């Protein structure tokens, strides 16, 4: 009798242990929240200067490694060649002609995004995300409306030395730890200007990594122009003084410095990824790496970024989905950066009535549905404060690229995208 009662008690204890174990297993292995979204924007980064996009220089070893866990979009096109309109298109899934946000210009007033327009962080916040934006200031100012929907939106500060970066990475650790305590999904927007001119924003070992022959009289390191302590316009003027991009030596010098900025950006990216892994956030996160626009390096006889050519519009877009879903896939179809917002919403099953001009490119991954939009980009100089829009527009359709921007006295451009990837032969 005693043995029977003892057996019953042991059985109850064992079943309780098993039940508890199954409950614990279930809690650890069943997702209880939506994935974190880590959105990294490297300003002024053209796709064809990353080694994972075929560039001869090994500018991006860490990003190259990341692509093994992610989807690489070979032909992502931005909707504007300048920071503010390009980013606002990504944040609203509206074209620059509709959201009307301009980069700062000395001759123009700035406008704030109209209050009725909802942004990506606003909708994510409505869906219980904690939203944090750390940005490079300037044309990402909250005054333009980029702060809408963010719980925290502030300048990331100086990350242009290794020691300064360490402090920012430490801050990122704290943000991730705090989010884990709250058990809420996290949307982090990280943005910096390392690749932006003047190309002196990197520690010397990165900045000079590709500069084998310095052109006489040209700047080569931050000591030549301590840009972070001076007025940007003044430092930019000092940096470009004496530069003649028609001179091959000058052009090679400038390109080497630009590539050095990419090399340091790749290091910064690696530190962010390392942090995510150390905090246990990597696997269950959507990680997006992209740029707002590229940079012209004399391909069409000019510099910087304001015209509608491939070197200013073709940007990297690399997306890691939770638990490395779709890992290693390369998509060759042209995609638009302002389609990213509806794509995220489809993947996360977020419903919204917010008007969007973009459409999801998930059909390229799921093989279900259709994605064949006309790829359109606008020059922000075509958006005036009186609500009118001029004719500076470019679009891709049926393998041809057309734009009617005026440049060097040429008013119309037509390229065959199938055979002229560099857009050198105006038809």
Characterize the overall form.
globular
Summarize the amount of helix as a percent range. 25-40%
Evaluate the radius of gyration: 24 Å
Largest sheet: 8 strands, mixed
Number of strands: 14
Low-confidence stretches: 13-19, 21-32, 382-389
CA-to-CA gap between the ends? 99 Å
Mean of residue pLDDT values: 89
Strand arrangement within the widest β-sheet reads 4-3-5-1-6-9-2-10
Class of secondary structure makeup: alpha/beta
Number of helical segments? Answer: 12
Order of secondary-structure elements: HEHEHHHEEHEHHHEEEHEEHHEEEE
Report the portion of residues in β strands.
15-25%
Structure description:
It is a single chain. This protein is an alpha/beta fold and 427 residues long. It has 12 helices and 14 strands. An 8-stranded mixed sheet has the order 4-3-5-1-6-9-2-10. Strand 12 (393-397) and strand 13 (400-403) form a beta hairpin. Helix 6 packs parallel to helix 9 (248-278). The longest helix has 31 residues, at 248-278. The termini are far apart. The model is unreliable at 13-19, 21-32 and 382-389 (pLDDT under 50).
Describe the protein's topology.
Layout: H1 2-29, E1 36-42, H2 61-66, E2 71-77, H3 83-92, H4 96-99, H5 120-126, E3 130-135, E4 152-155, H6 162-182, E5 186-192, H7 204-207, H8 232-240, H9 248-278, E6 285-290, E7 296-297, E8 303-304, H10 310-313, E9 314-320, E10 330-336, H11 340-348, H12 363-366, E11 375-378, E12 393-397, E13 400-403, E14 413-416
Parallel strand pairs: 1-5, 1-6, 2-10, 3-4, 3-5
Antiparallel strand pairs: 2-9, 6-9, 7-8, 11-12, 12-13, 13-14
Helix pairs in contact: 6-9
